[in-house]
Write a structure and sequence with these properties.
The protein has 384 residues and is of the alpha+beta class. It folds into two domains: 115 residues, Phosphorylase Kinase, domain 1 (2-Layer Sandwich); 255 residues, Aminoglycoside phosphotransferase (APH), C-terminal lobe (Aminoglycoside 3'-phosphotransferase, Chain: A, domain 2). Helix content is 44%, strand content 15%. The chain has ten helices and eleven strands. Strands 1, 2, 3, 4, 5 and 6 form a six-stranded antiparallel sheet that branches. β5 and β6 form a beta hairpin. It is globular and about 65 Å long. The termini are far apart.
């Protein structure tokens, strides 16, 4: 099957190796090696798109093509040869996807050029890796700060609309299709008591204070390729959830995912905390790129965004448990409930440290807010 896919794309050579890549949770991925007519070996990343999650793959790929093209132009303007962008390989018909019929249904495949000399980490407690993760996503949003939002479509509706997810939870509690609501009454009460924060970001989204920006929406460590030689970030990957949103979505989820001291399904809740040193590293990395370009309102909500996005995930896990585990994959009966309790414990710890975190965010912002002016001056000097 993979050889049939390769033959549909602008790839000249003989397929000599196929290696499954099992790091992703949504799409099926393979690293393939092709021997070119000149005798060189070239690698490519072949992915089968999960159309259950992304039912409109051509719209998805249009987002990715537009954003990667814009990023490449920005890197050229910045004279940045250190960092890279995902490169979409086109089919022989000039399209970003091909499809094949598999088991009486249509499957969609895409191919990226493989990025060499790179390493990724599923998770990390290394401060420098976390710093470079924050820096990578800050740089991503900095380069895309003037991107025309009309060219970007929403691939998953209301993905980070915390208020919408809150309302859905309330509706599903009333229905209680699986008879589980009473069992999770303490968790429901915890979430209900935080109704006042679920709309803090979304109520202002689209205004001058909290403008729409290009957001990645999955700002984990493993979505950044690091340079094997220097340790610096090399490229931001997994652009399937690139959509219009708030920078607060990406920052908040970045801290949540990189700075928790436990995995999302850890059941010993005494182990679930926010690592303040990793929080500081990610914040410094992110603001070293984005500080000159954020609004005062975005700055004031950065600490809250960590709490809101963590609460949002608790809502999603709890809602899925109440509905009978229909969305998230589970390994045992109460897996989603354990995940929800884990994220609630993390919210509690974030709330204990929120004043400290807000103070540090302001301190980091002050340190980096003039970076844009300095970089502009350097470019003018170099041009002269």
């Amino acid at each position: 099957m993979i050889e049939e896919i390769i033959n549909k794309f602008n790839i000249d050579g003989k397929l000599i190796k196929i290696e499954p890549n099992n790091t992703g949770n949504i799409n099926s991925t393979y690293v393939v090696t092709v021997e070119t007519p000149s005798g060189d070996n070239c690698k490519y990343l072949v992915q089968k798109i999960n159309t259950n999650v992304f039912p409109e793959p051509y719209k998805l790929m249009k987002n990715i093509e537009n954003v990667t093209g814009y990023l490449k132009r920005q890197l050229m303007k910045e004279e940045d040869s250190t960092h890279q962008v995902l490169e979409v390989v086109k089919t022989k018909e000039g399209k970003s996807l091909c499809y094949v019929e598999e088991r009486e249904e249509r499957s969609y495949y895409r191919i990226y050029e493989y990025i060499d000399n790179a390493i990724s980490y599923d998770c990390s407690v290394d401060p420098e890796i976390v710093y470079n993760t924050g820096k990578a996503f800050g740089n991503f949003q900095k380069l895309l700060r003037n991107y025309p939002m009309s060219r970007l479509t929403e691939t998953i509706k209301d993905f980070h609309s915390t208020d919408v997810r809150y309302k859905k939870l309330i509706d599903d509690i009333k229905i209680d299709s699986e008879g589980r609501a009473l069992e999770v009454a303490p968790e429901i009460v915890f979430i209900l008591m935080r109704e006042d924060i679920v709309s803090l970001i979304t109520s202002e989204l689209g205004t001058d204070e909290v403008p729409y920006r290009v957001t990645h929406n999955d700002t984990k460590v493993n979505n950044v390729l690091m340079n094997k030689d220097t340790g610096d970030f090399l490229a931001v990957i997994d652009l399937d959830t690139v959509m219009p949103g708030s920078m607060l979505f990406d920052y908040g989820d970045g801290i949540r995912s990189t700075s928790s001291t436990a995995f999302e399904d850890e059941t010993d809740l005494d182990k679930v905390h926010i690592d303040l040193e990793l929080f500081k590293k990610y914040t410094d990395g992110y603001l070293s790129e984005m500080a000159p370009y954020i609004t005062y309102e975005e700055l004031s909500l950065m600490g809250e965004s960590i709490r809101i996005i963590t609460l949002e995930l608790a809502i999603r896990f709890l809602n899925d448990y109440i509905n009978g585990d229909t969305y998230f994959k589970i390994k045992y009966e109460k897996h989603n409930l354990d995940r929800a309790r884990n994220q609630i414990a993390l919210v509690k710890d974030i709330e204990r440290h929120l004043e400290y975190m807000n103070a540090y965010i302001y301190e980091s912002y002050k340190k980096y807010k003039d970076n844009g002016k300095k970089n502009k001056c350097r470019r003018l000097i170099n041009q002269n």
